[in-house]
Write a structure and sequence with these properties.
Elements lengths: L19 H6 L1 H8 L2 H21 L5 H26 L18 H6 L5 H41 L20 H6 L6 H39 L4 H36 L1 H21 L1 H26 L5 H6 L1 H11 L4 E5 L9 H22 L4 E9 L6 E9 L12 H12 L2 E5 L6 E8 L10
Parallel strand pairs: 1-2
Antiparallel strand pairs: 2-3, 3-5, 4-5
């Protein structure tokens, strides 16, 4: 799952066009889709039909099965190319089927898998028959409409270069024009030289002005057919979402367990050991109090130092829990407080709308992610400065909104997510939330740890 990909299937045209200018803006991409349709459908139909018929004809000698499979794979490639062309025509992306079926084991099962996969047969039907029929109609209308539009509006330029017999003629018009009108036309003005070009220009202009609507409608026909035949089934998408949620839940449980085990180990190795030593020092001081007061005072001083260090370690461990300022004043204030306690200069930048209300659980996880990333910077990066940036990002062609937590440092770079370390913990936490982590850390720096968290909060609506 990736936010950047914005892999969202459009249930309809998300870029609903309003205004005449929007149609003109999509004219060139749509013409770029429609004009090459004829050679594409000829190649597609010829290739797929030939392979399929040859495969069926030779299926008795076994080799035909593999030829049919080759036709199915070719239909898949051509179908994906059709989806790519529609994307280039500025239409919303269509989610293709999931081809890597986990249940297929072995080389032979993967080779023959398309035979039992209904999507391959739909792609074959689309590439060999349906797209050919639709393409012939849409390409013909496009060429005729475009020819009339361009030819009519520019005829006054190129018609003068035609032979004399090919010029506009008014033969048969004289019977329809009243005699009194003909008598009033000056001798130097030929009727054909005015009416013919004018009528041609008006017709061409009408076709030209309506061309964006025509190309949009014809491309939409291709898009609708592709969405019905080349997209993943709704049941498959729901099944994948359930599987993703199951994986996310497992990752969340694993991340929580890892965090608890690490906290237990840190307490055992740190404050607990110091408290044990503190108890032993105080017991020794008690025994030495009457015999050797000077030695007892030294033991008490050591115990006080041990208690101070244990207190510091407990404070450091308590940063793994949500601080009160996070609940009272919000995420930005909590991060600013975290920056003050950071061992290196840390700068907080927030591009969130002031009126945005984040869910408490999302704020808590964003705080922990930033804290873990800053701890990793302080321990391993060799940086002199760090930056934490908060911003909202909307996925193109979709309704999803993400909260991005970006932690940057000017260290040496070369960071990687090693199992059991901080970056892996961030990745597991994000996976449990349905988010993803993006790591950019070239050798020499800088390092960018980008956490993408799905945002479910809504901006408060005005009551005015």
């Amino acid at each position: 799952m990736t936010p950047a990909a914005g892999v969202h299937d459009a249930g309809g045209m998300s870029d609903t066009r309003r205004g005449y200018g929007r149609y003109w803006a999509g004219l060139l991409p749509e013409l770029g889709f429609l004009l090459p349709v004829l050679p594409i459908i000829i190649i597609s139909t010829t290739l797929l039909t030939t392979l399929f018929l040859v495969g069926v004809g030779t299926i008795a000698i076994v080799i035909g099965i593999f030829v049919v499979v080759a036709a199915l794979f070719c239909s898949r490639a051509l179908g994906m190319f059709e989806l790519l062309r529609l994307r280039g025509a500025m239409y919303p992306p269509i989610t293709p089927p999931r081809w890597d079926r986990a249940e297929r084991r072995g080389v032979l099962a993967k080779i023959l898998g398309p035979v039992v996969d209904g999507h391959y047969w739909l792609y074959l039907l689309h590439g060999a028959i349906v797209n050919f029929i639709v393409g012939i109609v849409t390409w013909t209308i496009t060429i005729v409409w475009l020819s009339i539009a361009l030819g009519g509006t520019t005829a006054w330029i190129w018609v003068q270069f035609l032979p004399g017999d090919a010029h506009w003629s008014v033969a048969g018009w004289s019977d329809r024009i009243p005699a009194r009108v003909v008598e009033r036309i000056p001798d130097w003005l030929e009727l054909g030289s005015v009416v013919g070009p004018l009528v041609t220009f008006v017709v061409g202009l009408a076709f030209l002005l309506s061309l964006p609507f025509v190309t949009h409608g014809l491309t939409w026909v291709h898009y609708s057919v592709a969405r019905g035949m080349l997209a993943a089934f709704q049941a498959e998408r729901l099944s994948e979402q359930v599987a993703d949620l199951s994986v996310a839940r497992t990752a969340a449980v694993a991340a929580e367990g890892t965090a608890l085990r690490r906290l237990e180990r840190d307490i055992h190795d740190g404050p607990q050991q110091r408290l044990v030593r503190l108890q032993m020092d105080l017991a020794s001081a008690d025994r030495q109090l009457e015999k050797d007061p000077q030695a007892a005072r030294e033991l008490i001083a050591g115990a006080m130092q041990q208690s101070k260090e244990a207190l510091e370690e407990l404070r450091a461990l308590s940063r793994g829990f949500a601080p009160p300022i996070l609940l009272d004043r919000g995420l930005v204030a909590a991060l600013e407080s975290l920056a003050v306690r950071s061992p290196l200069p840390t700068h907080i930048e927030s591009f969130l709308p002031p009126e945005l209300e984040l869910p408490p659980e999302l704020e808590r996880n964003a705080y922990f992610i930033a804290a873990e990333a800053l701890t990793n910077v302080a321990k391993h990066s060799g940086a002199r400065n760090a930056w934490v940036r908060l911003e909202l990002r909307r996925v193109p062609d979709g309704d999803a909104t993400w909260l991005d937590v970006v932690v940057t440092d000017d260290g040496t770079g070369g960071a990687s997510a090693v199992p059991g370390h901080g970056l892996t913990g961030i990745e597991e936490r994000l996976r449990g939330l349905g988010g993803v982590m993006e790591l950019r850390s070239p050798i020499g720096g800088p390092t960018h740890v980008i956490a993408h968290l799905p945002l479910t909060a809504q901006l408060p609506t005005s009551t005015a």
